[in-house]
Structure formats: structure tokens, C-alpha cells
């Protein structure tokens, strides 16, 4: 949540909105609705306020989590949930058991300059991502936007010491 000055050995990896995967997951939801179908037992369907993002690990080893760099253009809240999907996923059949805990919750209050978060959960979540980076080149996240916040109003990354 806090912003530090950049230094040598720092690696900042941005959240990239995956439009194609988000569309694909929405089509799965629409398809089930049109057919009066039911999701698989335990399947996670994408809600309208949820979007899929990815982080590409350009380096996988010796990463130590430093901080989140989340910037919100307006007041609102974003919840960041990691997935345990291991390879290039077909997240259209994402199961609830593939959602990682803890989640990162970031918010900006009306009139505030700074983004706030639950520091303990954000720290634990960041450390877990650093561990998972050892075995992954890409990690997928579900970002849920609330209180009127939209994807275009978010700029986010995870900062590691490399």
C-alpha cells in the first residue's frame, strides 16, 4: 500500500487486463443462462464486476515480495484474488477451490489521496505470489471492482526485490 522509491534490484510486474479471457468467461456464463444450464459443482462464474488480469513473471527465481503498487483514480474498492491455475488456463471452468487465500483488498475513500489495504493479508498474499513465481511464468487474477470503480481507473503492479 505504501510507495517506496525505486532501487537497484527492484522488479515491478504490472497487472495486465486479459480482455480475451474475460470475454471467454462471460460467454460461458451467457451460454449457461441461455440453455438454462447449471454450472459444474464448485465452478466459479465471472460476475459483471469481475475481470481477469495476468502478471507475467519475466524473472522467476529469488523474488522477494516488497509491496503492492495500486493506484485508483477515484474512490472505490478492488479485491484481488489469485488463482492456482497452473498452465495457460482455460479459466472458463475455473473452480472455487482454485481461488487462493488470502485476497488483497485495496480501497480509496472519498477525498483521500492514498490507497489503503489490509496490510497483513496483502503482505501474506504478496509473499505467496513470490513463492508461486518460482514455478510459473504467468499468474492469473480475478479483480472485483465495487463502489463504482472500473478497470480503466486502476493501475496496479506487484513489486519484488530480485
TrEMBL record:
Matching entries from Pfam families are given as: Olfactory_mark (PF06554)
Query: Superkingdom of this entry's organism?
Result: Eukaryota
What are the GO BP annotations of this UniProt entry?
A: sensory perception of smell; signal transduction
User: PANTHER family, alphabetically?
Assistant: OLFACTORY MARKER PROTEIN
How is this protein named in the record?
Olfactory marker protein
Amino acid at each position: 500500500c505504501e510507495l517506496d522509491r525505486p532501487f537497484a534490484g527492484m522488479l515491478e510486474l504490472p497487472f495486465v487486463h486479459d480482455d480475451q479471457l474475460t470475454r471467454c468467461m462471460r460467454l460461458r456464463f451467457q451460454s449457461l443462462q441461455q440453455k438454462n444450464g447449471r454450472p459444474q459443482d464448485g465452478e466459479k462464474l465471472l460476475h459483471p464486476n469481475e475481470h481477469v488480469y495476468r502478471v507475467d513473471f519475466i524473472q522467476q527465481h529469488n523474488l522477494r515480495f516488497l509491496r503492492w503498487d495500486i493506484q485508483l483514480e477515484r474512490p472505490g474498492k478492488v479485491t484481488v484474488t489469485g488463482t492456482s491455475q497452473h498452465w495457460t488456463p482455460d479459466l472458463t471452468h475455473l473452480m472455487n477451490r482454485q481461488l487462493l487465500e488470502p485476497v488483497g483488498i485495496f480501497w480509496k475513500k472519498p477525498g483521500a489521496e492514498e490507497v489503503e489495504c489490509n496490510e497483513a493479508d496483502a503482505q501474506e498474499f504478496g509473499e505467496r505470489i513470490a513463492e508461486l513465481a518460482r514455478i510459473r511464468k504467468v499468474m492469473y487474477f480475478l479483480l472485483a471492482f465495487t463502489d463504482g470503480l472500473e478497470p480503466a481507473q486502476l493501475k496496479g503492479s506487484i513489486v519484488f526485490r530480485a
